[in-house]
Design a protein that fits this description.
141 residues; little secondary structure; four-stranded antiparallel beta sheet; 3 helices; 4 strands
Length: 141
């Protein structure tokens, strides 16, 4: 962990390096930005500076936020037999399917360097068909 300034730090992990910003609560690995919980790089910085890691967790994970979410009244939905029926004209239909222009793809496109596999009959050992639809006599050695 290398300090760039008071709020920015460079964390080197193997061959990768990450920039942790404590003021923005972000890291270039983007885990802290997305999960709102300090990532491993941020924890290395916070523990190295003897800072409280819990103060850098988002307020959404606090128990007080959870309790305040349900302080208001939550009304039940009720029996679905009492619900108003919706007319067919209000139904949302899936979008219409439009066939793409051009000829349809008949078989899988091979990757670069991938060679085409040819089938060989195990009955007569000729190419182009299999044992089930073979019309030739069996191969004798």
């Amino acid at each position: 962990v290398n300090a760039i300034n008071d709020v920015e730090f460079q964390v080197i992990e193997g061959r990768k390096q990450f920039i942790v910003r404590l003021d923005c609560k972000s890291c270039t690995c983007r885990v802290w930005d997305l999960d709102k919980i300090p990532c491993a790089h941020a924890l290395a910085v916070l523990r190295g500076r003897s800072m409280n890691t819990y103060s850098f967790v988002s307020k959404y994970f606090l128990s007080s936020t959870l309790i305040s979410t349900y302080t208001g009244s939550v009304r039940p939905v009720g029996n679905h037999a009492n619900w108003k029926s919706i007319g067919i004209e209000n139904n949302i239909l899936p979008p219409t399917f439009k066939r793409r222009a051009g000829q349809l793809q008949k078989q899988r496109i091979l990757s670069i360097g991938e060679k085409k596999s040819h089938s060989r009959c195990s009955h007569c050992h000729r190419a182009g068909h299999n044992r089930r639809n073979c019309k030739f006599p069996p191969f004798l050695q």
